[in-house]
């Protein structure tokens, strides 16, 4: 029980950190914290071992809290001035997070838990389970409005072709890391951001890496960017966040990230540098991850109708 109490304290600390960022207007940091905590909660809600002795009702409550965190994250990333899920609503969940065992009231919001992705062995197909970001609701260039909740490990299909418009497919081949073999369930989150760190397209996650070899984690997976190249706003960049599961901390963590700017969109192979976390979507305080020649290896395909 002592370990469970420590876990609840970590949850509460993470929740407080995220809502503080939110109230201070540090939206990129808030979104990142909300996602980390949501994934942690979803994993606990989906656990089959029940090592922490949560009842089924408590697991459902934990899953519903995770859903609320994602709803608030989606609201922060929307360009609409009217927020769907407000910060003051989210703060109503704080006493529940502080002590889930003592909570026996009806959940304050009409939401449902979203199932967590299944952890698969490298090379297996990823189940279409879990939620994280949003999908394109057709709100126009530069606007992520109405993106429905998305499923990590689920890649989106290629957009329909349009006359004179260019489609971009990026094959993620491999990433070089000195401790590649130690990474558990690694995958890459791909997003397209404007200069303010706002999503321009739905965010996509790769399946778990296909294999690990020496200092490389191999993916060999194609990502279809969900907006025609000509419709991307000036100064936009495509981000690649390498993530892996940390069993001791019981959550998925970003290890490093890379990005590709618009002038780098060219057919053929490209190798891009890795930067230290946290992910800096505004590209203002970048720090290289290592002086060693370790990179993200990509291959771009441009299709124009």
The arrangement of helices and strands along the chain is HHHHHEEEEEEEEEE
Estimated structural class: alpha+beta
**Contiguous runs where pLDDT drops below 50 for at least 5 residues:** 117-152
Classify the beta-strand content into a percent band: 15-25%
**Number of separate strands:** 10
Oligomerization state of this entry?
single chain
Biggest sheet character: 5 strands, antiparallel
Rg over CA atoms, rounded to whole Å, is 19 Å
Bulk shape? globular
Q: Helical proportion?
A: 10-25%
Highlighted features:
single chain; 305 residues; alpha+beta; five-stranded antiparallel beta sheet; 5 helices; 10 strands; 24% helix; globular
What's a concise summary of this model?
The chain has about 300 residues and is of the alpha+beta class. It is about 25% helix and about 25% strand.
Q: How is the secondary structure organized here?
A:
Blueprint: H1 2-24, H2 27-46, H3 56-77, H4 87-90, H5 94-98, E1 166-176, E2 184-193, E3 204-205, E4 211-213, E5 216-224, E6 237-246, E7 251-261, E8 268-273, E9 275-276, E10 295-304
Antiparallel strand pairs: 1-5, 1-10, 2-3, 2-6, 4-5, 6-7, 7-9, 8-10
Helix pairs in contact: 1-2, 2-3
Written overview of the protein:
The chain has 305 residues and is an alpha+beta fold. It has helices at 2-24, 27-46, 56-77, 87-90, 94-98; strands at residues 166-176, 184-193, 204-205, 211-213, 216-224, 237-246, 251-261, 268-273, 275-276, 295-304. The strands form two sheets. Strands 4-5-1-10-8 form a five-stranded antiparallel β-sheet, with no helix packed on it. A hairpin with a 2-residue loop joins strand 4 (211-213) and strand 5. The longest helix is centred in the first third of the chain and has 23 residues, at 2-24. It is globular, with a radius of gyration of 19 Å.
